[in-house]
Amino acid sequence: MSETGFTDGMQQAMAPAGEAQEVLDAAEARHDIAQPVQPAYGAAVRRGVPQADPVLWAKLVEQPFEHDLFMLLRRLDAQGDHPLLGRAPRPLDEPLRLGQEPSMAFAPSNVSGVDVDSDGPPRISIYGFGLFGPNGPLPLHLTEYARERKRHHADNTISAFADLFHHRLILLFYRAWADAQSVNSLDRPDGHRFVDYVASLMNMGQPGLKERDRIADHARTFMAGHLVRQTRNPEGLIQILKLYFNVPVRVDEFVSDWVMIDERQVSRIGITGRNHRLGGGATIGLAVRDAQSKFRLELGPLSQEEFREFLPGSKRLQQVVDWVRQYVGIEFAWDLRLVLKKQDAHGMRLNSNQRLGWGSWLGTRLSDTDAGDMVFQPEALFSRSASAAPVAAPASSSMAL
Question: Is the pLDDT of residue 352 over 60?
Fold first, then answer.
């Protein structure tokens, strides 16, 4: 018989006949009242549970042994509503307290318990990383004494005094571990230390060198393996663009082009002429043929939607220009070829969002291959200086001697 049933039976036996019936009616009425349904984690509604991530704290109270200490502290540290654990200027700014549970047994888990009912911040007790226990530096009889005082006399003076040191040392130990993990710096927007380290390898660690173009800084640090090298090759540029845009990429080297001759270097005849010595610098025309200073970047085959994303005026085309400037610089000239899939290369259609002169044809294409007609110079559209993009001259205008 349960304790409630035993108490009700004793009251019925000791009460007079009239009062006995009243006791039975009251007991039946009490059992007829709908009892409140306990939540999956009852500690979530208890006093003292932090408002931030209450489900996590409820799980900690119910099953603390299922959580790893460092993973738990990392999750709490990522909430971002307090200073980094181990770096708070005052103990009042820390969201929790850490301590060690005096125990003579070897630690079965990292976390031994969580107390959220006491005044002040929540307290997390652990088995290891402390002065007590079989692996601690103190003699075992001190651990046994602290355990006995806490369990049998409700006196936690010794363990509370030791927790003053445990709290600080455990947080410093966690901070040393967290700072050595590269992914931990991405948990909070104010703790990107490892990202700054990688950016410094690319000479981009200063704040003034960040967010300077249309490429996210995190994407640039992701490509640090290619950008940190002093020698740049086509394979590096191909890998960067392929990973960033998720499209096929190809680079054609040694693309011939006409380079305009500076006005002061043009050959002139006559008494006041210059640069007119045959074999010594004289040229015919206004441009010379060059096949060493230009390459061609080919993207595709692309779908119609992807093709429109790289047309002039689009954000993706601006990002292509920024990537090429970042990797190659402005030493070489280059142009871009967009290859459209053959099934999407059709004549002009109404309501097809095809741009005249950029992605449309009049009539029907006779070729049954991918369309690679679109070739243009993005630097001529987005370059801030005219010298960054050489102006092409007609092929029949001049030739080099």
Answer: yes
